[in-house]
Amino acid sequence: GDERRRRLARLLDDAAARISRNGFQVMDMKARPPTAADALFHRVSFFNHCCGGMNTATWTWDGGDGMMTVKTTREIAAGEELTISY
After folding, report:
1. pLDDT > 70? residue 25
2. How many C-beta neighbours within 10 Å does residue 77 have?
3. Are strands 48-49 and 35-40 parallel, antiparallel or unpaired?
4. Whole-structure pTM value
């Protein structure tokens, strides 16, 4: 009854909070007009942030292939942290 609803509400609130902190906006540039959506990419959410132009990596998502690609923006030294702009 009520306890089950409260538990479900807490689980949904927790999931929404995690998504809002780790979500990214993606664009479908092939659609006309281009469309935006929010997406959760668990692994890329572990990258630290660095302001645009200073980051060491970029990422793209191909929804058709279901493939995420991370590329460095310059040569990276062994042990150097990869950062993205978000």
Report:
1. yes
2. 7
3. unpaired
4. 0.55
